[in-house]
Specification:
The protein is α+β, with helices and mostly antiparallel strands and about 400 residues long. It is built from eleven helices and 19 strands. The strands form five sheets. A five-stranded antiparallel β-sheet has the order 10-11-14-18-16. Strand 1, helix 1 and strand 2 form a beta-alpha-beta unit. The two termini are about 40 Å apart. The relative contact order is 0.12. The model has no long low-confidence stretch (mean pLDDT about 95).
């Protein structure tokens, strides 16, 4: 059973079908694209873990996960543990990872580098602490994904609106305020995998943002390799393994966000037991040949997996998250023939004439562009000057 119905589940469904598995997709939106490719659809709220458990028992499933769908991770873990299915690890550990304020507290208790942070259940309490923060801070829901509800707050006057926005996007009605960690180079947001608790494949990328987007904190591009040094990557790999061990996690694909602060410290900002959105596992399969999608699909039903091992990147890769700069009508995608890159894949999800929105969250994306470059300098030039070669036309 796969929780959710977004297009990022399509490669998982394809991998499952290649293994001969029967796939059930589940959420409360029957028209979601993944349901068109699964063998069966069930209408259930994926954040209602008891309801998901009832359906899972009725269907007598052999495995469950919430790949690329953050709201379903807790329910998937709950069902795994209640039914004795292959699991990410202890349910309590997954709850910690999926709740931003509990995760920050766990990191602090175990001597990880961590920003000062505090969770809130009411607007009044959050505003009441306005004077305790050294601005800028980040305000975000504790349980949302895709950058929904996230705001960087520069001063105390901006806090109230940011708090209201975060609460509006929170599923559980909880938000977190934390120190903004100014970064050196690019932050990283990419996928890795452990097998039986051992981190066997780790990746770091350069996460890029569009400063002119409706929400400038929604990732707009990714590139591999990262801008980190080998020493920084080695330190973070060691800390990620320590975190996995402390939480008793097992065979899992993780979406992991890290950054190097201007204080020189490497930080684990988020680690969630799911494949990331934005096709990150697919990009890593392109760049390294490592197929975590098939591996985790087999693992979640208890079948043996082929060896997953660390492999180098086969060149310099980038994924552009295609999006509109404003609300309007999509007029087409224009790619100049002089683009100094190999276009490995162009995946456009809408047609000319469709209505589009400004880029506020991941679900406002309209497609992806997979590019391979001859060297890092060319990659950086294209990423920094995308508009010179790549244009999303909006009327």
């Amino acid at each position: 059973m796969l929780l959710g119905g977004i297009r990022y589940l399509l490669p998982v469904i394809e991998a499952a079908h290649k293994q001969g598995y029967y796939v059930i997709t589940a959420d409360y939106i029957p028209d979601n694209i993944a349901h068109k490719y699964s063998d069966e659809y069930v209408n259930v709220s994926i954040v209602d873990k008891e309801a998901v458990l009832r359906v899972a028992r009725e269907k007598k499933i052999d495995g469950i996960m919430s790949f690329g769908v953050d709201p379903g991770v807790v329910s998937a873990s709950y069902v795994q543990n209640q039914m004795g299915l292959p699991s990410f690890g202890p349910f309590e550990s997954v709850e910690i990872l999926q709740n931003k304020d509990r995760f920050r507290a766990f990191l602090a208790e175990n001597d990880f580098n961590v920003p000062q942070a505090k969770g809130y259940a009411t607007v009044e309490d959050a505003i009441g602490d306005a004077k305790q923060w050294n601005y800028p801070v980040i305000v975000k829901p504790t349980d949302s994904a895709g950058s929904k509800g996230v705001t960087r707050v520069e001063n105390i006057e901006q806090l109230k609106d940011a708090v209201g926005y975060a609460f509006d996007k929170s599923i559980s009605g909880h938000i977190i305020i934390e120190d903004f960690i100014e970064k050196l180079g690019c932050s990283s947001d990419t996928d890795s995998m452990s097998v039986d608790g051992k981190l066997v494949f780790t990746s770091f990328c350069a996460q890029r943002f569009d400063v002119n987007a409706t929400n400038p904190y929604t990732p707009a591009a990714y590139s591999w390799p990262s801008t980190f040094t080998k020493e920084q990557e080695d330190y973070l790999t060691s800390e990620i393994q320590r975190l996995i061990t402390l939480l008793g996690l097992k065979t899992v694909v993780y979406n992991i966000e890290t950054r190097i602060g201007t204080d020189g410290k490497p930080y684990i900002m988020e680690l969630t037991p799911r494949g990331g959105g934005n096709r990150l596992c697919e990009m890593l399969r392109y760049a390294t040949g490592v197929d975590m999608i098939t591996a985790i699909t087999r693992a979640m039903v208890g079948d043996p997996i082929e060896s997953i091992e660390q492999r180098p990147y086969n060149g310099h890769w980038a994924e552009i998250i295609l999006h509109a700069d404003k609300n309007g009508v999509f007029g087409g995608l224009q790619i100049d023939s002089s683009l100094p890159a190999e276009i490995v894949e162009e995946d456009l999800w809408i047609k000319s004439g469709a209505h589009v929105r400004g880029f506020e969250a991941a679900n406002d994306a309209i497609g992806t562009l997979v590019l391979k470059f001859k060297d890092a300098i060319t990659l950086e030039n294209v990423i920094a000057n995308q508009a010179q070669w790549i244009k999303v036309l909006v009327k």
